[in-house]
């Protein structure tokens, strides 16, 4: 805070993110405020929020205090938590670079027009037909996240990197690994990992593109080959409209405890739009569950009757119980 609004001014006090201030006077672009310690000075108005916005953040944290974590991520740069997806929403908490966050929900919203490039025509464009619809707006993704202090808000997807284990991070084959979940561990005396216990994973992947009507379109299970000391694909499912979260558990099959994983897929083309965030989700989904027998992945229950991938995706394909090396 400064003692006056001028080119030359003196620092009178420092205030921290989240500190409560009493507004004494409104200037053109500055506010005269008083701290809880009695310090008085001027601060830029874009550096503070009013009580109403603060209450919105408090309510957001309360509403999602127990929301399930669908994945985890790491911030690539300092970023402000926002109270809604979009670049024009109110912001409050400043999160530091490399902060680890719990990812709760994804939303796709139209990109702010001020941030979209304006195309320069090379020649005079033809007149638009009367019945021709304008092109759809460019979308960008936001994630609702929760930090270690329990603060909740929205961050832009492009500043958040999914927290994927280094050992499998390069096995995406051009797709983004949205989530990686440990199924079990196997013992490899020659593996350079703690306790020689190597984790095996179920992963979900998606194209590097914002605005997708699904969270992932591919599932892959990576198992560890103890003879060749490398990960291999035990199961792959492509061209699905899948939705987080992915759940993993251990269940009894005969005399054996085996890993089980489940996820939801769209069961039709109908969609539902969240009026607050603009996130699009299928109106109907079915849950698919699988269990592992050794390195073989088997479906639990019958094949769902309806299996429609969103947004014109190709009919689904599946590769079961096949082990293929990655090099």
Q: What is the total tally of β strands?
A: 21
Indicate the proportion of strand residues.
over 45%
Mean pLDDT: 84
- The helix content, as a percent range, equals under 10%
Oligomerization state of this entry? single chain
Written as H for each helix and E for each strand, in order along the chain, the element string is EEEHEEEEEEEHEEEEEEEEEEE
* Number of domains as seen in the coordinates: 3
Low-confidence stretches: 304-327
Tell me the number of helical segments per DSSP (H or I, 4 or more residues long): 2
Characterize the structure shown.
This protein folds into three domains: 48 residues, SH3 type barrels, CATH 2.30.30; 86 residues, SH3 type barrels, CATH 2.30.30; 162 residues, no CATH class. It has two helices and 21 strands. The strands form five sheets. Strands 11, 12, 13, 14, 15, 18, 19, 20 and 21 form a nine-stranded antiparallel beta sheet that branches. It is globular. It starts with 21 loop residues before the first strand and ends with a strand. The relative contact order is 0.11.
Detail the topology: elements first, then pairings.
Blueprint: E1 22-26, E2 30-34, E3 40-44, H1 51-63, E4 71-75, E5 79-82, E6 91-95, E7 100-110, E8 139-146, E9 152-156, E10 160-162, H2 166-169, E11 176-187, E12 197-206, E13 216-225, E14 230-253, E15 256-266, E16 271-273, E17 280-282, E18 285-293, E19 296-300, E20 317-319, E21 324-325
Antiparallel strand pairs: 1-2, 2-3, 4-7, 4-10, 5-6, 7-8, 8-9, 11-12, 12-13, 13-14, 14-15, 14-20, 14-21, 15-18, 16-17, 18-19
TL;DR?
By secondary structure, the chain is mainly beta. The protein has three domains: 48 residues, SH3 type barrels; 86 residues, SH3 Domains (SH3 type barrels, Roll), CATH 2.30.30; 162 residues, no CATH class.
């Amino acid at each position: 805070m400064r003692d006056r609004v001028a080119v030359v001014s003196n620092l009178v006090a420092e205030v921290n993110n989240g500190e409560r201030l009493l507004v004494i006077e409104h200037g053109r672009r500055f506010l005269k405020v008083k701290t809880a310690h009695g310090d008085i000075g001027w601060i830029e108005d874009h550096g503070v929020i009013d009580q109403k916005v603060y209450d919105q953040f408090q309510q957001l944290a309360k509403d999602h205090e127990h929301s399930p974590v669908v994945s985890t991520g790491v911030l690539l740069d300092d970023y402000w938590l926002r109270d809604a997806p979009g670049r024009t929403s109110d912001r409050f908490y400043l999160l530091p670079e490399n902060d680890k966050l719990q990812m709760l929900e994804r939303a796709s919203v139209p990109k702010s027009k001020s941030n979209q490039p304006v195309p320069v025509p090379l020649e005079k464009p033809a007149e638009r037909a009367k019945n021709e619809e304008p092109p759809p707006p460019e979308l960008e993704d936001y994630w609702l996240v929760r930090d270690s202090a329990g603060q909740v808000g929205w961050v832009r997807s492009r500043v958040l990197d999914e927290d994927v284990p280094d050992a499998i991070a390069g096995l995406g084959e051009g797709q983004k690994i949205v989530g990686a979940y440990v199924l079990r561990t196997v013992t490899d005396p020659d593996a350079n990992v703690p306790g020689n216990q190597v984790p095996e994973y179920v992963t979900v992947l998606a194209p590097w593109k914002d605005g997708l009507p699904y969270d992932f379109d591919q599932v892959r299970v990576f198992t560890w080959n103890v003879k060749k000391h490398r990960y291999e694909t035990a199961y792959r499912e492509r061209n699905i409209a899948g939705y987080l979260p992915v759940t993993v558990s251990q269940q009894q099959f005969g005399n054996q405890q085996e890993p089980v994983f489940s996820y939801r897929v769209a069961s039709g083309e109908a969609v539902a739009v969240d009026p607050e965030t603009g996130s699009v989700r299928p109106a109907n989904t079915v849950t698919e569950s699988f269990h592992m027998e050794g390195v073989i992945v088997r479906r639990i229950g019958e094949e769902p009757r309806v299996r429609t991938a969103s947004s014109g995706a190709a009919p689904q394909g599946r590769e079961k119980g096949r082990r293929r090396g990655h090099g």
